[in-house]
């Protein structure tokens, strides 16, 4: 195990290594995706210790149920980030979590966290971070509600008191903006 | 599809990538992705955008999270291996081993018992054979002793015939009392021996209260030379007392143990030297 240098593999190599339960595959899996998945999980639960526990749960679920990933249906990261999001969102909906976080207003905290974690962000993605600021706030809020809180389009429409069609359009526009920024 | 453009713009593909669709809707999107390259391309771009978004908000977890995960993977693999290999197969293997070992032990026990019974029977047989052999041995050694004594008797008897010069053989003839009686007496003056040949003895058998007594006549006086019994199966030579200058021998029947003076009317045989 090497904690300083990161192991990277091509996506097909990584998929093969995980299927073969290769220890190098486990290390590469972690090195390549831990910060991205942790970022998503952290934004959902907003608690470092819980987020690290859930990251662990996420990687173990990925490792143990990897046979359910179908490369033909999409990218590995899309599958993994949805595993991470499901685990983290389930956590936020659990009774114990809601009791402990009762006083905190999650929506408002998202912006605060974004500022707080700036300093520990991966240096490679600092440029990307600046680009996020280019999302329109009315687009970003919908993306965050769907992406980090796991709300369905219908739930977002109810929460923001806007038509369902508008939710769909704004979400699509948010993603189109991201495509323009990143692709 | 009639209206591909509006399908692409409906927002359903974004929902698909975000995992916000029912199973039926997901299958529908997957079918369309296979059928229309435009749908596939749109999905890929949405995925790429959201991946980049996630990367842009990436946070490095603490180093111990990595250690924890890799240790957990090791543990999982060990548990998987041990549950399938160790506790499963090897348990069955060892169970099978003990099953065979038990069967083998039983067979060995059975075999050993048979061998033991067999050996015990043979041992008893050997004891019987040994007893038979010992009794045979006793019989042979008795026979040998008997033959040896017979041989020595015969040798003694033979020396009279082999060495006639040394012995004077006197044949005593039956008196009026016992006309059939006869007795051979051998006399060796040099060795001072007097012997009677019991093999050639031909005297009436004496009863329990009487014995024959041999006398030598020296200058007209009878001298006791000892007593003997006459039996049908007597063999060998019997050594008697010696007296010098005997002129004749006589045998009388006397009370058991012999008498000091011969009972003349019981004179059985007489012979002159």
Produce the secondary structure layout.
The complex is a heterodimer of chains A (183) and B (273).
Chain A: H1 11-19, H2 23-45, H3 48-64, H4 76-92, H5 95-100, H6 106-116, H7 126-132, H8 137-149, H9 153-160, H10 164-182
Helix pairs in contact in A: 1-2, 2-3, 2-4, 3-4, 8-10, 9-10
Chain B: H1 4-9, H2 12-17, H3 23-35, H4 37-56, H5 63-162, E1 168-174, E2 182-188, E3 193-197, E4 210-218, E5 221-228, E6 237-240, E7 248-255, E8 267-272
Antiparallel strand pairs in B: 1-2, 1-8, 2-3, 3-6, 4-5, 4-7, 7-8
Helix pairs in contact in B: 3-4
Descriptive account of the structure:
The complex is a heterodimer of chains A (183) and B (273). By secondary structure, chain A is mostly helical. Chain A folds into 2 domains: 1-104, Orthogonal Bundle (Rna Polymerase Sigma Factor, Chain: A); 121-183, Winged helix-like DNA-binding domain superfamily/Winged helix DNA-binding domain (Arc Repressor Mutant, subunit A), CATH 1.10.10. Chain A contains 10 helices and no strands. Chain B has 273 residues and is α+β, with helices and mostly antiparallel strands. Chain B folds into 3 domains: 4-59, no CATH class; 86-162; 168-272, Sandwich (Immunoglobulin-like), CATH 2.60.40. Chain B has helices at residues 4-9, 12-17, 23-35, 37-56, 63-162; strands at residues 168-174, 182-188, 193-197, 210-218, 221-228, 237-240, 248-255, 267-272. Chain B has an 8-stranded antiparallel sheet. In chain B, a hairpin with a 4-residue loop joins strand 2 and strand 3 (193-197). The interface between A and B is large, with 61 and 43 residues.
């Amino acid at each position: 195990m090497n904690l300083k240098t990161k192991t990277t593999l091509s996506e097909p190599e990584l998929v093969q290594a995980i299927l073969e339960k290769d220890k190098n595959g486990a290390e590469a899996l972690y090195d390549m995706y831990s910060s991205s998945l942790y970022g998503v999980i952290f934004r959902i639960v907003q608690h470092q210790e819980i987020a690290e526990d859930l990251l662990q749960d996420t990687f173990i679920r990925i490792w143990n149920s990897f046979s359910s990933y179908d490369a033909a249906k999409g990218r590995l990261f899309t599958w993994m980030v949805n595993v991470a999001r499901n685990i983290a969102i389930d956590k936020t909906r659990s009774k114990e979590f809601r009791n402990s976080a009762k006083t905190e207003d999650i929506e408002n905290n998202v912006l605060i966290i974004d500022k707080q974690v700036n300093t520990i962000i991966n240096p490679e993605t600092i440029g990307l971070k600046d680009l996020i600021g280019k999302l329109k706030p009315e687009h970003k809020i919908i993306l965050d509600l769907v992406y980090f809180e796991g709300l369905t389009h219908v739930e977002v429409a109810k929460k923001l008191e806007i038509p369902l069609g508008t939710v769909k359009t704004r979400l699509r526009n948010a993603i189109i903006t991201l495509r323009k920024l990143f692709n | 599809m009639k209206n591909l453009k509006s399908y692409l713009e409906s927002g359903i593909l974004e929902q698909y990538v975000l995992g916000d669709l029912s199973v039926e809707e997901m299958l529908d999107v997957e079918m369309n992705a296979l059928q229309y390259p435009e749908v596939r391309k749109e999905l890929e771009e949405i995925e790429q955008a959201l991946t980049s978004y996630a990367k842009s908000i990436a946070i490095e977890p603490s180093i111990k999270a990595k250690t924890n995960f890799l240790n957990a993977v090791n543990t999982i693999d060990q548990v998987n291996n041990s549950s399938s290999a160790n506790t499963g197969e090897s348990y069955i293997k060892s169970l099978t081993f003990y099953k065979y070992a038990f069967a083998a032990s039983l067979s060995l026990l059975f075999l050993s018992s048979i061998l033991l019974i067999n050996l015990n029977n043979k041992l008893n047989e050997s004891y019987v054979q040994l007893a038979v052999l010992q009794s045979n041995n006793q019989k042979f050694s008795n026979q040998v002793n008997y033959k040896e004594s017979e041989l020595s008797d015969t040798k003694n008897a033979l020396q009279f015939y082999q060495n006639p010069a040394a012995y004077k053989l006197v044949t005593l003839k039956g008196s009026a009392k016992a006309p059939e009686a006869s007795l051979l007496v051998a006399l060796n003056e040099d060795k001072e021996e007097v012997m009677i040949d019991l093999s050639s003895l031909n005297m009436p058998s004496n009863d329990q209260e009487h014995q024959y007594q041999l006398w030598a006549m020296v200058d007209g006086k009878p001298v006791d030379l000892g007593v003997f019994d006459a039996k049908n199966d007597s063999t060998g030579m019997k050594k008697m007392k010696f007296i010098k200058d005997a002129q004749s021998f006589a045998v009388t029947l006397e009370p058991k143990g012999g008498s000091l003076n011969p009972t003349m009317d019981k004179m059985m045989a007489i012979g002159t030297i």
